[in-house]
Amino acid sequence: MLFSSLNLKKWILDVLNSMNFKTTTEIQTKSFLRENSNRSQIITSKTGSGKTFCYVLPILNNLNLDENKVQAIIVLPTKELSQQIFSLFYKFTAFSKLKVKILRKNENILKNQPHILIGTPHKIYNAVRLNIFNKSIRYFVLDEADMLLDFGFYDTIYQIFKKINSTHLIKYATSATLHTSLANHLRNILGNAKVINNSSSIWLNENLCHNIVYQSVNSDPINTLFKLLKIINPYFCIIFTNTKNEANLIYKLMIQQEFNVSLLHQDLFERKRRREFKKITKNEYQYIVVTDLMARGVDLPLADVVISYGLPNDTMFYIHRAGRVGRNKKNGNCYLIYRNNQDNLINNLIRKGIKWNFQLIKDDKLINREKKLHFRKKILLDQSINASIKRIYVQGTKKVKPCYKKKIKLKINKIKQKQRHLFIEKKIKQNLLLKNIKNSKCDKNKIT
């Protein structure tokens, strides 16, 4: 479908043409259908499929630019995502009277209200509770909705929603990995929103190539990482780590070796984070070292390589990491630095359908060579354990609260850990019994 065939205002089409956007993506086509227009939507699609325009264009097309009041609120989980969405809306200000604003800390917006207000949950709540512009709001958007819920923002978002007194409010929620239970959770806010989904599997993206890089059996992963960087020499590479300490260490070592690199994680001061993110979007660095703060929603069009320094325990985060490349039908390469204690996590992703290329570093070259993975034997749980785990799942889904997934996982892990200890204890006793039997046989043989 062509954007020009949609009933969009001329100034919106002019901006889209200047950005070289001519045709809609599959998810946009579904969202823009006549039966879905002017109604609340839950939009789920893989990363890089153009979900953002599904709410951006309808909002822009229906704003009253002559009325200087807040008419749309967009809630995002991180400052970086807020800056990215602001930058997208700001491109449309060149052709119109549009006013858009990111909420900063303790900022007063009583005068010169923007048409669109963007921010993280707590900042949006602080603005909404003043009850100054709540009746004028016509659009309410939760971008990266699963991340907002996983970060424990549900109560704050619900309070924002209750404060908005606007009638005929149109609501949007977008996510790449929004599953059924989370969608049901969102219905308290979104009501009977239409679920629009074009993703058969969130795990698969035909534009991505997944590689596992290793050296010898007990090689140092940092050494493997630096050898890989020298071999591939990417145009723009994002290096993901599981912890802030790992990110700090890799950044320090890369600075020592004079790499053009930036560091971004949650412990940095807000001003520094904002400054670094602006430099990153302007492509002033060849490498950035980040935690999973940057794994969701952030669009860096020039990025061509993602490196994961080990897998996150929640393999869903690997998919979000990989989704920073291979966007808008472009190809991307994902490299995983192999760690021998993560074979089970790798196998989990294989079962989801991801095909890995195993690459050995030898003589400063990458050689395709299969590697044998070693898996921990699965401990079979008895029927009583399985029944108690099922009970936890049932109780957890009856009354959903923020971070409910983590709480359910903790309870189940405690049960499984107890079962493992019993299993190990049983094995030790069996081994001791066998040892005693062998010793007694040896003693009898000596006597005879």
Strand content: 15-25%
Mean pLDDT: 82
What is the 3D shape?
Answer: globular
Structural class: alpha/beta
Total count of helical runs of at least 4 residues = 15
Strand tally: 15
Share of helical residues: 40-55%
What is the N-to-C order of secondary-structure elements (H for helix, E for strand)? HHEHEHEEHEHHEHEEHEHEHEEHEHEEHH
Largest sheet: 8 strands, mixed
Cross-sheet strand order for the largest sheet: 10-11-9-12-13-8-14-15
Rg to the nearest angstrom? 26 Å
Head-to-tail CA distance between termini: 93 Å
Low-confidence stretches: none
Word description of this protein:
The strands form two sheets. An eight-stranded mixed beta sheet has the order 10-11-9-12-13-8-14-15, sandwiched between helices. The protein contains 15 helices and 15 strands. The radius of gyration is 26 Å and the shape is globular. Helix 11 (270-281) links the parallel strand 10 and strand 11. It has helices spanning 10-18, 26-31, 52-62, 79-90, 121-128, 145-150, 154-163, 180-190, 221-232, 244-256, 270-281, 316-322, 343-351, 383-398, 404-447; strands at residues 41-44, 72-75, 100-102, 116-119, 139-142, 170-175, 194-197, 208-214, 237-240, 261-264, 287-290, 305-308, 332-337, 356-362, 365-368. It is an alpha/beta fold.
